Amino acid sequence: MSSSILNIQRDRAIASPPLLLTVDLAPASFHPAAELTFCLQWKVLVVDETSRKLIDNAVSEDDILNLNVTSKLPSVYSSSSRCGANGLPQDVEQIEHRRSPNPTMDALYILSPLPHIVDCIMADFERKRYRKAWLVWTSCRAPASSNGRLVLTSLAVLDPQQRARLDRSQIARDQIANVQIMNADYFPRESRLITFRDPWSFPVLFHPGCNHLIRAHLEGLAQKVVSLCASLGEYPVIRYYRPRAPTHEASVLCSHLARFIQNELDQFAQFQRDFPPPSPRPRGVLLIVDRSMDLVAPLLHEFTYQSMVHDLLPISDGDKVTYKTVINEGSHNEEVKDMEINEEDSVWVEYRHMHMKDVLGKLGEDFAKFRAANPQFAEE
Fold first, then answer.
1. N or C: the chain end with fewer CB closer than 10 Å?
2. Which of 371, 243, 257, 239 is nearest to 295 (CA)?
3. Whole-number pLDDT of residue 361
4. Do you know which InterPro entries this protein is assigned to (predicted)?
């Protein structure tokens, strides 16, 4: 498995959805040949606002447009697709928006397990907007069982009323061909750094007026952490911070989150029999801490290459570092273009966490080695 969480999520996002099966809920008569036929016939991809951000974060437009439609994502991602205002091909539809019916086409839904999304998909089923629906949830929890059979939508974290609405609907059962789980409910920023992009997490956890929201929020965080563990194939030992002399009631949050994560992991491993996969590495350790362990760090200015870049270069979308460069300088088609510094820049990846003093020294050494190995670049 790749050591980069960026690559792991990208592989999950662009791999052929039928091969992402975690639990196959298709009828017993369902045959792999029918699955292959469906792959070749896919025309519509339906996402929601949240899952679209996950897909946008994992893959570029070129990744989408250059996919081999016979073995990867459906033909909505073929090079002939046109792009809409949101940057995705026009045949990629957002479930919250008005859409034209396509009753002769099958649809792949990549959706977040949220109550209002269930309302939207039920509206699609009632209108028979598409021929068949293949559901891919971005995250999951251990499913309930009914007479030895897995319940379709219990794989996702749904409101009980909405879950029952799907489970008991004959219209939904007639149109749902399969249920799959992506386990990619997180946003990688670096090869070993992820965030959940939840700006409300801090006030929910620490504001006295939000005490009634804490349990549900911690459960949601636990499910996202388990989604990450599932992607990494890790069933970690959990350790958490507990201060000896707590000064605030929030000091119990680490222990509560640890308990929720442990419960979610145990339930996930119970129904996902091949989790965790065999690995030569020792069992990982998940450390759960809070800012009270190190109160001073946010007040200090770092002296790493990365911190200098953040000081001097523009930051877009919260974490994208860009710079301007001149393409075809001196020619008639000269242009100034914005370039992004990302994981594909080996110099950036190697130096970003180093102290600037060390960067300057090593950068000079590496440049000297490059010039020695490539004399054609030497100055005249």
1. C
2. 243
3. 93
4. Sec-1-like_dom1 (IPR043154), Sec1-like (IPR001619), Sec1-like_dom2 (IPR027482), Sec1-like_sf (IPR036045)
- DSSP one-letter string for 2-54: -S-HHHHHHHHHHS-GGGG-SS--S-TT--HHHHHHHHHH--EEEE-HHHHHH
What pLDDT score was predicted for residue 352?
Answer: 93
Q: Which is nearest to 58 in space by CA: 118, 138, 116?
A: 138
pTM of the model: 0.75
Domain boundaries, the chain: 5-181, 198-295, 305-377
Q: Which residues of the chain have pLDDT under 50?
A: 1, 16, 18-40, 67-90, 142-156
pLDDT of residue 7: 84
> Tokens for 229?
């563990």
- In DSSP terms, 145 is beta-bridged to 150
Phi, psi at 134, each rounded to 5°: -110, 115
Place of tokens 């992009």: 197
Kindly report the backbone phi and psi dihedral angles of residue 82, in degrees, each rounded to the nearest multiple of 5, phi listed first: -100, 155
Q: Where are the alpha helices (DSSP H) in 137-276?
A: 160-167, 170-175, 201-206, 214-232, 253-271
CATH class label, 198-295: alpha beta
CATH architecture type of domain 5-181: 3-Layer(aba) Sandwich (3.40)
